[in-house]
Queue: 4 jobs
Job 1
Amino acid sequence: MLRFSLFDFPIVVHWFFWVNIALLGGAVSASSPRAMQALAAWMLAAFVSVLIHELGHAFAMRRFGDRRVGILLYAFGGVARGSRWLSRWEDIWVSAAGPALQLAAGFVFELVWAGRRMDSVFLASFVGSFIHVSYWWALLNLLPIQPLDGGHICRAFLGQGRLRLSLVISLVCAGGLSLFSLQSGALFIALFFGMMAFNNWRELQGQPQVPWMEAR
């Protein structure tokens, strides 16, 4: 595992994070030097963008008084773990802070690099990948699917009294997107949403979440 600290937040990057990022970037079909450069640029861009996303959560937690926040990047994304209980509206703000900072980073990056000539394959791939990840992954995270940020927001907004309703909404959305992706031939995405739907179903049955599907 890669371990380091940034802005006084301890950060751990699990090896499985790199595996999934590489697969999403087309590692299986990358056979030429140009393709390998593009893959390396994609992996770096995804890492930086996801880290910015989690830092958004971490800074929001710190803003609400939590001084012991850690970040873990693994599996299909990451999680910012705090040490104190959050109120309903604090939870909503913390959940929204990650996608918001990620979208802002993508927008600023696009403004800075728009129209610039980039002769380097690595640089051109990094810029394009960073903007793509920052926009689309942030928007994906706002879907009302648990454990995505949108699922956290939906859950907090409805309140604990409507926990089952938030899970049903999440299950329907995740299951529908999984089936749609499967019909479209996007097997990896279908598996991604399918595992979330399965996790939601387990919770509805009173069973614990699958640990590696936790996210924030």
Job 2
Amino acid sequence: MSEFLEEISTARAHIECWLTDMDGVLVREDRAIPGAAELIAHWADTGQPYLVLTNNSIFTARDLSARLAASGLNVPEERIWTSALATAAFLHQQKPGGSAFVIGEAGILTALHDAGFVMTETDPDFVVVGETRNYSFEAITKAIRLINAGSRFISTNPDATGPSPEGPLPATGAINALITKATGKQPYIVGKPNPMMFRSALNKIGAHSHNTAMIGDRMDTDVVAGMEAGLHTILVLTGISDPAEIEKFPFRPDEILGSVADLLP
């Protein structure tokens, strides 16, 4: 056992850059998880590059920075990487200056606009589905017809439901499924668990997979995508996963910790 712990310690000693999920890792129900503020301050004080990742495509990085500040976490907007930003970066790589019909809110609309995309309902290159609390039958119908006419189907993330105080809400993955059923076409999903989101995050901070760790609370997104991207994976037990949940999967993270407080020096 001591040899195993020594191997983990040695592996973590080589980590110079950090990617971390937000909900369930740094915050829970808009309250900072103990140790999160201190860890972010430690990274900032020691000059360790980091990014906070989220599949949420509703909000801009500035919005999320303000939300985290209200929770007591000082995370500048340039240290936040959303599925909306990753999607915009991917589409800019695919077709610079392209056009898109978008179902979504400020996060994805702003990201695509800043990437040089034109929003249109007339023969767009892409139909992009992001998260929103205001899905309309008219917009979904339009998306289906545009995809059938040849527009490429892109989605920010696969999450079928999202949390709310009253219970689960239908999220992006549920709308993806509806459109897929109507068109027979699957979307290309950029957000977690696609390791592309992690690779684009690495590019943003000039990091390399061999010396970067991913901290998450979900086996089915954070850990599997981090593993496939070649990162050192750390699962914390402050979010959705518990020991019983971990046992359901055939793979394991490099480390399982109680919380981010266990990463403090």
Job 3
Amino acid sequence: MSDLYKSLKKILTRVRATPFHPQWFVYRQQYQHQLAIAKVLQGKILDIGCADQPLRPYLPQDADYIGLDYYSTAVNWYETRPMLYGDAQALPLATESVDCVLLLDVLEHLPRPYDCLQEIKRVLKPQGILVLQVPFLYPIHDAPLDFQRWTSHGLREQISEQGFVLKEESQTGKPLETAALLMNIAISKTLLNWIKAKHPALILGIFAPPLVLGINLLCWLASYFSPEDALMPHSYRWMLEKRE
């Protein structure tokens, strides 16, 4: 049964750019988002929580990239090799030594998130850029290291107090897209739990692929004809500048 579990995870990895994937609304515009982020980066770039460094191929050729990750996370969880091991809440870099910082889906995993923002402000040069991305309506992940969520209003207030100026703000997920994402994650997690427990209800798993596909396509089509709405995005992304 464990082999079935692993096989399903591999299949999902291969189809994550298609509406057959439960998290299609996370992955379907990932390439465009990576390009948009890379456009604002230059000079010495610090990527905190870099994992497998997905943004590195999109950066300018003359960029001085530093991928940093926490040792136990990189070694024990993701089996990746960053260029530098370190704690995001106590960065092992000199003051005013980097031009840009990436903090993508990392802040929610830190027990002292505002210490991290203070450290980023310290290592950034004057008018340096921070690209910050955090989830909002998204399930607990990487437990037990998942500590908080913010509304855009709450985080904007904290960012200002930490010494950053908001230059650009974007959100991902119209209401129906986020609802579809959460529903499909719930369906998939229930199925995986049945597999682990060898529960007889596992037979219902045959309905999961068409159900996920139908939910994704229906909500995508309805959202296509819907106006932008800030009610329930699944993530936020900000471009911030260090205040003089």
Job 4
Amino acid sequence: MQPRIYKGNLGLVYLSLVPVITAILGFGIGHINYRIYLPCWILNVCLMVTAAWFLGLNVIRKNDLEKKHLAFGAFFLVIPWILVSIFFGFGPPPGNAKEWVATATEQQVRYSILVIAGVFIAFGFAVVRERLKNKGEFFYSLLGFLSIIIAIPLFIINMLFWGFFLTETFRILVASTSDKTPEWFMPVRSFFGLISIVEVSLTYLAIAALAASLKLTGWFGKIPSLIYIIMSLSAFIIIVLSAFGREPFAQAGFALSIPAIPFVMPYFIGINLLRRAGN
């Protein structure tokens, strides 16, 4: 029993560090050659899956359907950051059209990964919501589920815009050797900016509702639940206010809208639900 607990605690620490290390390397170092980051990412995927297994995913081998479904739902919330951890090697998106076109394949891979991550977030919310409903909590679990199933399609559309529409647009601009931005581009960009505000604000609202539901069922303690709720609602308010372009809300809203950032709290919720399933 003791070795299993030790491995579970070690897995918890490793999984908790992944988003922090990914952000530090991604923004601090920038783009790395794929011959370096790809093997490192594959190793990290193996380590994260192993850590999740020892933390609680191993209960899928048992006959306890409730724990098995909870483990699957929790793991679905963890998968997005297993995927986006590859961004430590991608670095932030390029700042101009020429650099974007030069790394076009990686940009399309980046936003394709984010689309897949969004799908798993929706799966995770759906499965966990069923478990919460069976525990007698209907309102907040339903509110969170409805918010996320509205947000994720908008998120997918937004990611496809960035990964494919924008890439093709930049290719045309670079090929034309013109420095002038087409007149139609800015209205389209503003439109997708508003889509981003809607989907990100709904995502944070869904997280707050999920945390409230976890609190009511007793799956999360009062203090951790309140932390998730306060952080999510604060992010929701900042994102909404950022739509008016006022500082400091515009910059803060931009930071909170970075595609993988809204998935951080569901990731940590997933980790803790995995630990609960394992216990």
